[in-house]
């Protein structure tokens, strides 16, 4: 499991430790659900990096893949580039109106479709990797020579 530091820049707990602590603090169905989601994310992509940003768990691979937010009645997985990810199993059920993000709201008693979720995570990672490769890179420190204009 790859790990990243916390977003505060301090010498506190690692992001993975913060996520583990958050799961333990939620000593109800939400903690169990967040823990299950975390395990499925790592099964889908062993190279995923755990981060702690904006006070929530974040999983990244060549950019943010998804977040794991907890609310009173839902555990929400928000996929940063979800609108670009194919979802043949129809897992996305929230934030469907936007042009970028998509989310999955999981409520108490709902079953997580493990195989479909792992496939969705793999597809989200593939979108990140493809967009990273497609992005043009600028050569550092290179400047174009000024063009000469016509004349004598």
Describe the protein's architecture and organization.
- This protein has helices at residues 15-25, 29-44, 114-134, and strands spanning 2-6, 49-53, 56-60, 64-70, 75-79, 102-106.
- The N and C termini lie far apart (65 Å).
- By secondary structure, it is α+β, with helices and mostly antiparallel strands.
- The chain has a six-stranded mixed β-sheet.
- Helix 1 packs antiparallel against helix 2 and helix 2 packs across helix 3.
What is the compact description of this entry?
With 152 residues, this protein is of the alpha+beta class. It has helices spanning 15-25, 29-44, 114-134, and strands at 2-6, 49-53, 56-60, 64-70, 75-79, 102-106.
